[in-house]
Fold each of these.
Amino acid sequence: MAQKGAHVIMQLGAILRVFEPGSPQTRAIFDLGLVSAVILALIFAVVAGIIVYALMRFRWREGESDPHQIAGNKTVELVWTAIPCAIVLALFTLTAHTMSLSDPAPAPEPDLIVIGHQWWWEARYTNTGAVVANEIHIPVGRALSIRLESTDVLHEFWVPELARKITAVPGHPNHIWIEADKPGTYLGVCSEFCGTEHAWMRFLIIAEPPEQFDAWEQAQLQPSARPVEDSAAKGLAFFQQMSCVSCHAINGTAANARVGPDLTHFASRRQLGAGIAENTPENLRRWLADPHRVKPGVNMPNFNFTDEQLTDLVAYLESLK
Ligand code: CUA
């Protein structure tokens, strides 16, 4: 219940962020919205004003005869055809201009390939080969071209502050640009219903100064940390014996499957389960103990780990900075 409440608040928060554009693309969309709202408000005020004026001024009064009847007036008809045509043409031109700003033609080679899965996002940096899940870092002030794919059903990639929405269609890549003016963490959501956990298919766009971004990307390319503690070492051994390796990859170990999120730098992520919980040892333990309690419908099975196994797995995964 508390989780549901938190979700509704977050959803509302995500929607409200369209009022805080943080990139040239979303600013163009926001400005078009403002200009359209002003034009529509003016039309409303003029039409409503004329109606109210006519009702008052030409009201029937006691003893008055019918007014003079007019049938057709070319000038008036031309004027009230021309004005709406001009308004529609103006809105069309503004919209076409905004579309060219908010959705430029795709780059020949994308900077990022983002793939929607039920229910998480994978991102691959094409230049370096770094692969991440649910937390996508970008350099501030540079537009990155994204090729959007899906492995299963329709999803929709939406970061309200940074870019327009775009649908991830299986077998049909779509393109979008993403950019942030200022460093910060921007919430992204899936905005196309895609199954039971559609609401928990969140992601973060973390915009950083270019040097910080480069350092992050280099760190993501490093193989996973070797466990130092005994418990973490047992966790790694256990991870490799179990069927964890048939879904997950951990660079530098025997695990290289691509079904679930890459866990090479798992501990550097802020959240678990595509936004459902903070990435803390306690939450990770709850997740591993019964993923379906935390995120009903998730593809990860319940392995009925023992307490000791849980402790070792948590120690290992949380050491993967
Ligand atoms: Cu993916 Cu909704």
Amino acid sequence: MKKGVFIVLEGPDRSGKSTQAALLKAWLEEERGRRVLVTREPGGTSVAEKVRGILLDPKSEIAPLTELFLYETSRAQHTVERILPALRAGKVVICDRYTLSTTAYQGYGRGLDLKTVDTLNRVATLGLKPDLTIVFDMPDRVFGQRERLRGGRDRIERAPDAFRRRVNRAYKLLSRRPGMTRVDAGRPIEAVQADIRGRVARLLGK
Ligand code: TMP
């Protein structure tokens, strides 16, 4: 039985999710007295981090269907080994990306069949669904600006601009689904964090 709370942060590359995850964890622990696990996909366990290495290595040549299975492989291990035990222990789990990334990147971005993606998402998660998914909305041009600041590109970030635009459009569409909440991630870090805390506070109640 799940006792904890499962929060997923989603959105395009370089939309600031990991910074926001760290700030949210500090607030939940210090102000709300919650125990928190921050984790990420692909990755989050020793085996899943190895799969991440394969997926993001610019030297890997990976067919779209193989890419889909690798993301789901990482997810299955991560869900069983880390997320479910943390939820059973009553923790708040903040996960940087989960199933919506696969729908956006492999479904809409790579053009794989959306029903197949949904099915594999369901299998890899053992049916686990987030309590809240926060979708970071960011204009396409911000990626270029943030890239100049950070530099370096992994295999997915090297994909053509058209791929990134398809992914970004998909996120805008998907953020309207039930259970999703959208934040404008083009603003200063503190403003984005304030929005996120407001949504999470509503989810957790008093
Ligand atoms: P990140 O940790 O920088 O977000 O890198 C992960 C990359 O993998 C990012 O470009 C998004 C991509 N990705 C997918 O294509 N499908 C997925 O299911 C997940 C979780 C991530």
Amino acid sequence: MSRYINKKFVKLEAYTPGEQPRDMQYVKLNTNESPFPPSAGVLRAIDKEQVSMLNLYPDPTCASLKDAIAGLYGVERKNVFVSNGSDDILNFFFMAFCDEGEHPVKFPAISYGFYQVYAELYATDYRKIPLKSDFSIRIEDYFGNDANVVIANPNAPTGIALTKYEVESIVKANPDRVVLIDEAYVDFGAQSSIELTKKYDNLLVVCTYSKSRSMAGARLGFAIGNEELIADLEKIKYSTNPYNINRLTMVAGVAAIADNEYYVANCKIIEENREYTQRELIKLGFRVTDSKANFIFANSDKVGGEELYLKLKERGVLVRHFSAPDICEYNRITVGTREQMDILLQKIKEILKEKEI
Ligand code: PMP
């Protein structure tokens, strides 16, 4: 740290992204990316013509991209916000709507680590709400109308989802607060709350192209909500980085929506692979949560969480381990192709066998 850093940030603990190692080719099941490539339409869209126009700024209004997203979800352009990955929207949410005075925020104690980082970054008053012992969310804990609410649905890293009805009850109970539902993983079998944004002006649903749409490398996220909430996010965007979607990502994003069926089919495969892998893990003595996401959250009495993570890594399979005490015996395993899952299962069998000797 230099001696010049703003004193507000001296104690800030930055978010640690999952490993992106370059030392060898891993079966990479640690950052919830899609194992499938972008659709053929996306590959065609990023053509020489687009590349040759990189000397020109992209459209700051992102009209074509917003229209494509609005069309898919049955909303209007004014209800859509797009940004450089959904992390950016979370950042803007905390910047726009949370503070240390009248606008505190609460979120589940076990959830996406970035919520706390943003809360700290903006010196927001925040409360971490404990989960039930089975890692599910007690919705009544969010009924107070006393703080903004941020919930990942399905939650991460547990994969456990709330129903649309449960989300609605939280939104209804907080008429004077903004409720952000982070639907990064919703396309793998959970219920989306996007429809509810037409009925409630305090609901912001945040989505990403990084998981179900195979575009983590393009950095594209979007939010859907009431036009005034979206205008607030636009204000922050135009005060920080007006050209936040680059030209290539813009055309790729439009093309991905046109190829929606391809992605829906891929999500189905991931769901099947998730169910298959969970069944096999249970046979091996693991416990798994009821995940509706593209990852599995699993633990076993036969092998510690960190030990399993390290032994899998030695064998070329990368999963995500968190050191927080409540979840350190678990691993979060991204669901990949059937072949990748079979390699994972094979390596786990080897590790368990080794421990028996
Ligand atoms: N929300 C959740 C719950 C996530 O796990 C992630 C991925 N790390 C994100 C948001 C951010 O995704 P991205 O910025 O790639 O859109």
Amino acid sequence: MTRVAFLGLGAIGRPMARHLAPPRFDLIVWNRTSAKAEAFAAETGASTASTPAEVVAGADVVITCLPSSREVEQLLIATDGLLAGLRSGQILVDCTSGDPATSARIAVHLAEKKVDFLDAPVSGGVSGAERGALTVMVGGDARALERVRPVIAAFGSNIVHCGAVGSGHALKSVNNALLAVHIWSLAEGLAALAKLGVSPRTALDVINASSGRSNTSENLFPARVLSRAFPRTFRLALLDKDVGIAAGVARDHKVPSPVLQLTAELFRAAHAEFGEEADHVEAVKLVERWAGTEIA
Ligand code: NDP
């Protein structure tokens, strides 16, 4: 049976790993907070290891799902880190929403050990992960993708090869920058309409029957903003990171990008304001504060 090592049982990593548990694969997990790995193993029949080096030793496929490429690189080079355990012929699939430049560096490190690297960030959110219906954007060698496709298919229903190493991360960052633009611009528009006397619900009903609609207007705002529920499924800190990556990709490639650069600045401000645990949609609260009105 294919042995899969999974590192990073966070909000999205955990439901992804759930689909890899026995009897489907021989799954071994590692998480920085070990209690989470032990609870997961007790529930799913996976096994655990006490260090990253130990968890990857003997695995055919290694999957990481950490906040950013910085943590992936740290885990790679740490004492008892991934590099200490990885062997020729293995493959590392990084499902982190990371950045292309760090991924390129990681791929070079791993190539020295004859370990393949794929960046494979996901979209579809926690609910998509629970349903095993994520979109997976893959950068790297297409033959390496074919080798791990059955593993990725356990949590991904739409697996897309995007190009060379880093291209999955670049595409994911642009997707999330668009999410951020939609959140911010819709909040500004609804706040202005509210002050004018148009109820946000009426405004959303019209927008959602018209050309301004988006997933943000159809799903996020009705369920999370109008209700004031703001559930915590995807941290604002992570969206700030993603928009920053997209803005950096545009700068690196000399694409004039005032909207991306400004959106990155706005989400940096919201992250600084609301902290590490706030949900991404809570950025709306900064628009509301500046406007002196609530979108409810
Ligand atoms: P969480 O913050 O919920 O989880 C982060 C995970 O990384 C935890 O397992 C955490 O361990 C671990 N971790 C954090 N810092 C370190 C470190 N320095 N060394 C080792 N492990 C560390 O994040 P998510 O699961 O939400 O996100 C993971 C990735 O997936 C991110 O890149 C995110 O952008 C992306 N993503 C998230 C989506 C979502 O809806 N949540 C949707 C699509 C992509 P510990 O348990 O010890 O804190």
